[in-house]
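User: tokens in, sequence out, please.
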């Protein structure tokens, strides 16, 4: 579903991604983990072209994302992105936050978009919040609205960049539960996370990055019990 080939990227003379290669089959869930500054956010943002790349290629379900001939707005409808800080539209109700893109980009009717939005919000435990404004919601509720908003476009891939890092501890679970449910439904996902227990439980593969490079790729059982690299051993010692 996702192929990342020989990707390099610099900000000025700072080389932040070096020779990145990996593939994610359909319905696989990959956790991108590693120390702060490793390049995790930059890498996940290149997958939907929120960041450009200097060399290489990223292909999502047959579409070369960074090819000049690609209609990136169309390609992005296939890639749901959930940010650390929710990024909801503050002046729109919950329902309008979820329906705006299906109506504007996918040209759905208002009735059709609202029907689907209500189903998604209800399935995420937000059935009583359709008319609320984001500022009146908890962080965990806002993040679940952000997930509903991404899902409303019927993406084939979901990308999460530290979706629980801005949440109070008691709200982490409700957001992880929502992501876990998507995993069980077969969604292809890339999740940047510091929630090691969660990564271990739901991911097919761990991609461990440090200093702009992929240091190690392994299934969670192997990665968390017996990683090959010293860099990963040191990281796990510090975080577990
Ligand atoms: P991570 O998400 O793993 O913490 P990032 O991808 O955010 O790492 O950052 C990787 C490196 O790139 C860091 O050194 C960061 O300072 C740098 N960086 C990220 N975004 C920019 C930017 N827009 N301009 C310049 N440097 C950046
Ligand atoms: Mg980051």
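Assistant: Sequence out:
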């Amino acid at each position: 579903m996702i192929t990342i080939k020989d990707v390099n990227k610099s900000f000025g003379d700072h080389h932040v991604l070096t020779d990145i290669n990996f593939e994610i089959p359909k319905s696989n869930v990959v956790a991108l983990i590693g120390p702060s500054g490793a390049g995790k956010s930059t890498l996940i943002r290149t997958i939907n072209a929120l960041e450009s790349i200097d060399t290489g290629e990223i292909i999502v379900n047959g579409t070369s994302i960074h090819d000049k001939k690609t209609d990136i707005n169309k390609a992005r409808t296939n890639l749901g992105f959930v940010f650390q800080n929710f990024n909801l539209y503050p002046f729109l109700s919950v329902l309008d936050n979820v329906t705006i893109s299906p109506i504007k980009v996918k040209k759905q009717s208002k009735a059709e978009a609202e029907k689907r939005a209500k189903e998604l919000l209800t399935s995420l435990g937000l059935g009583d919040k359709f008319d609320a404004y984001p500022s009146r919601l908890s962080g965990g509720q806002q993040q679940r609205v952000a997930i509903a908003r991404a899902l409303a476009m019927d993406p084939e891939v979901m990308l999460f960049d530290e979706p629980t890092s801005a949440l109070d501890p008691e709200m982490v679970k409700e957001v992880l539960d929502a992501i876990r449910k998507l995993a069980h439904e077969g969604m292809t996902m890339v999740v940047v996370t510091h929630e090691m227990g969660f990564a271990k439980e739901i991911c097919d593969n761990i991609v461990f990055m440090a200093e702009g490079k992929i240091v190690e790729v392994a299934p969670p059982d192997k990665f968390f019990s017996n990683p090959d690299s010293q860099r990963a051993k040191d990281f796990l010692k510090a975080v577990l």
